[in-house]
Amino acid sequence: MLALDMPLAKRRSRPAPGRDDLAWWREARFGLFIHWGLYAVPAGFWKGRPVAYAGEWIMYHGKIPFADYSRLAERFHPRHWDPAAVVRLAKQAGMGYLVITAKHHDGFAMYHSKASRYNVVDATPWHHDPMVGLARECRRQGIRLCFYYSQDLDWQHPDGAWNTWDYRKEDKDPARYLREKVFPQLTEILTRYGPLGMIWFDTPLTLSREHSAAIRSLVKRLQPRCLVSGRIGHGLGDYSLPRDNFLPPGRFEGDWETCATLNHTWGYRKDDHQWKSASNLITTLVDLASKGANYLLNIGPDADGRVPPASAARLRAIGAWLRVNGGAVRGTLPSPFRNGFEWGRITTRGRTLFFHLFGKPGRYFRLHGLRTRVTGVRAFADPGREFPFRQAVEPATGTPILAIDLKGLRWTSPVTVVAVHLAAAPEVEPLTLQQPDDSVTLIGPMARVGTKARKPAMRIGGSGMSENWRNTADYLEWRFTVIKPGAYDATVVTTHQHLEPWSGGHTLRLECAGRALRRVTRRDALLPGLRSAYYPQIATRFGRLEFPRPGNYTLRLRADRLNLLKKNKTFFSDGGIQFSEIQLKPHG
Ligand code: H79
Fold first, then answer.
1. Is 48 helix (H, G, I), strand (E, B) or coil?
2. Residue closest to 302 by CA, chosen among 36, 517, 503, 44
3. Pairing mode, if any, of strands 97-103 and 30-34?
4. Within 10 A of 67 (CB to CB), how many other CB atoms are there?
């Protein structure tokens, strides 16, 4: 499987940067992505017709000959490009870094390159290097400048990957492409614009480990503290990336960043008006922070250099929320719980937990599983306001319960933060717990992978997704605590990337509390929620379980029969079962 994310097994060989090199990036939690290039000129349309998929891929999907595509440069004269305003927008949004396309897959350099005349100064009537002003503004306004650089796909250079309509695949020599273009251009961007926060490499689809390693060492030789994104390939990045727009089922392992769009495209498309709401974006930022990931959110300026007003408005709305609540996001550590909650998320700083309440909070709040003594509860936006709380232990299971009376808490839409101060560093119950709303949610990152074979082939990857679940010997197993005995309905949720086929029709067996429920995974319902937009959450109802008394139970999920279709295999998916979660809810 060619995965964009880095399976944990591979990351073991990842060279560890000095802890300090990642410190600024962890602290920032939130960055601006900018996709800007020649593709902004056609804006998703070629010869009057829309070309499907993200705007920056138009050359590829339209199989546009280089001779035609390169003439877009003659029309690139962005009168409204304003680097000071763009950096100010990032600041207003509360972001700490900015990543701009120095060269995307189309091969066009958006800075003055000596290594290739196919660049914004030499090939356009604008004759202007936008990165000079941008670097200056970043320095002035205090934002880390980073460059995106497509190291593998390049549709201009005959030896670059994936242009097979102009050049024969058999003739391609990747070493020559690296020597003639990638190394010289990386040297340019790393030596001309001052210190860079990172080079954001992307789509490692064809380069060898040796080539990725050579690219990495070039970056580190020229700027030792410059980070290298996980998509350099072969587990050689300084941190990991899941797929575009991915939201994890639970806390990540290690350092991660989710890059995401405000609408659906990265490079400007004039027909993409499907904007995410500000409240969706704020909630997503909180979700990712609680799971230990950065959020890199994209704008695609148009051919005149204008940031779409809908993008700017959303970024400012996030910034307005962060001005009040940013201290509960920036510089925080992830939640001590691996799972999220129906009611919201948790981030941590030292001995303080920040409870991020989604939606309008009710008066009485309860949390299960926090072992540490609480010393005080305050409104984050109004620290003068303290709330009464009580800690107790549920007698039947020993589950610690924290109850807070939030009477008088002022709601800061869409997320309200409550600071919970502890007597020591937070410690939580290790098992999955029944929640105060009586539900139990079992997620991949909380499971043990078992097998009837000698060694499991399936695993839960660092992003929390099941990988290589293509056999009947392996299973997932959870221990969890039931507080309220009774009848529960079990639902198994599987998923897929929205543009790729779902791998369904597998016969799964769920064993728990003396029962075995056997069902074929099918689309009984699509669950709502943040994750569903790019990873539809497909629910299969499995039926009823009985928990006769409070206490700990074990649940096992395995495949009795697989329905592995060739057509479900894609570039990024192995076609196996993509497990998301199991939900247990009181029957009825
Ligand atoms: O720069 C943005 C995207 O252009 C780039 N990453 C973000 C940050 C990116 N685009 N697509 N991908 C990464 C994943 C590649 C998807 C593909 Fe396909 C699936 C390539 C081949 C199969 C899409 C569908 C392109 C061709 C068919």
1. coil
2. 36
3. parallel
4. 8
Confidence band, pLDDT 50/70/90 cuts, at residue 19: low
User: Angle 309-325/278-290 helices, nearest 10 degrees?
Assistant: 50
DSSP string, 443-457: EGGGPEEEESSSS-S
Q: Is the C-beta atom of 2 inside 6 A of ligand 1?
A: no
The H or E element that residue 516 is part of is strand 515-520
d(CA 368, CA 395) in angstroms, rounded, equals 13
pLDDT at 14 over 90: no
Mean confidence (pLDDT) of the chain: 96
**364, burial (CB in 10 Å: exposed 0-12, middle 13-18, buried 19+):** exposed
**59 vs 70: CA distance, rounded Å:** 10
Asked if residue 244 has its Cβ within 6 Å of ligand 1, the reply is yes
Confidence at residue 5, expressed as pLDDT on a 0 to 100 scale:
39
**CA 105–ligand 1 middle distance (angstroms):** 10
Give, in order, the Cα–Cα distances in Å from 191 to each of 81, 145, 188: 24, 13, 5
**CA 105 to ligand 1: nearest atom:** 4
Separation of alpha carbons 176 and 110, rounded Å:
22
> What is the model's pTM?
0.96
Nearest CA to ligand 1 atom 2: 266
| Whether the CB of 202 sits within 6 Å of ligand 1 | yes
Q: How does residue 2 score in pLDDT terms, banded at 50, 70 and 90?
A: very low
